[in-house]
Amino acid sequence: MKKKYWIAFSSIEQIDSKFIIKLYNHYQDIEKAFNADLSDLKNIEGLSVKKSENFLRLRDKVDIDRTFTEVETRGINFLTVADDNYPEMLKNISDPPAVLYYKGKLFECNLEKTLAIVGSRNASQNARDGLRKIVAGLQNTDICIVSGLAAGIDTVAHTSAIENNLKTIGVIASGFDYIYPSSNKTLYQNIESGYGAVVTEYYPTFEPVKFRFPARNRIVSGLSFGTLVAEASSKSGALITANLTLEQGRELMCIPGLISNPNTQGIYKLLKNGATIVTESADILNALNWEVKETGVSDQLTLPMLTPDEEKIFKSLEIEEKGVDELLLETKLKFDDLLMNLTTMELKGIIIQCGGDRYKKV
Q1: Which one of 45, 168, 202, 230 is CB 3.0 to 4.6 Å from 206, fit for a cystine?
Q2: Chain segment 217-258, per-residue pLDDT in tens
Q3: DSSP tally for the chain: helices H, then strands E
Q4: Eight-class DSSP state of 200
């Protein structure tokens, strides 16, 4: 079986996809490529002799059948760049993964309507809330959200997708033996168990070392028709994905944020350079020229009956979150009455407490 040679190649940490694909394209046979000798490799244009020698030295230590079995016994599926069902958008980038490992239901995701969402790991509450609102506007459609399963904006993107009945693909920067960050273990499991797929180019035992995170960003953008940046500082990793999006000829979009927030410096730089501004889900559909099926499900919040005092509080929170002192001043309610109404409105699911004595609309 030829496919085990793709896995054998992939199990060698010191070589990359470019090297593997160059050999495959030369031989048009992955088994012959794996078993090539130095004299053959020296004749391949653009192939480093040093890399070739390193590959041959490492290749001789690979147990081809064992590496394949280790993937199978872990319940990991995989595609190779030579497969007909390899994602077309990803195949078209300059450096596609030679092997794409995955868990979950990759082909239940609509790979013709994929949207990447990236941003800061230390995202502000404003950015998180704004992203949730925008993803909620896409609920019950056939759009698939792609992100990197990191903390911050990535986590919000995946969880919001699941909450709004959207499929989601998480691209990780390690093999499947590792979950990073560990706090996302449940999210990994939820995605794998039916909400989409987790994918990686790395053999199961490869660790999530630093250089692999920017490398995986090309897969996040490469799988997607467009990338939405939710928050990014001037030196953010999200800007790497933004630049890759442009290099790959895909649509770049940004959610604006507070200009006083350092994490929006990268956002406004991208907007000034021509990125599409997104303040609602319709902006994404327009930018990508997508039509989605009407589901008949409204994304508007149906409010329960409000008392006059609750209406005062709700109106006061219309624009932004506020503290108890501000609410007392604006609503003119007595302290005890205000607290009682805040508690009742929380139980009704209209407002939530968001730190200390501050409240905001759901």
Answers
A1: 202
A2: 999 999 999 999 999 988 888 999 999 999 999 999 999 998
A3: 17, 12
A4: E
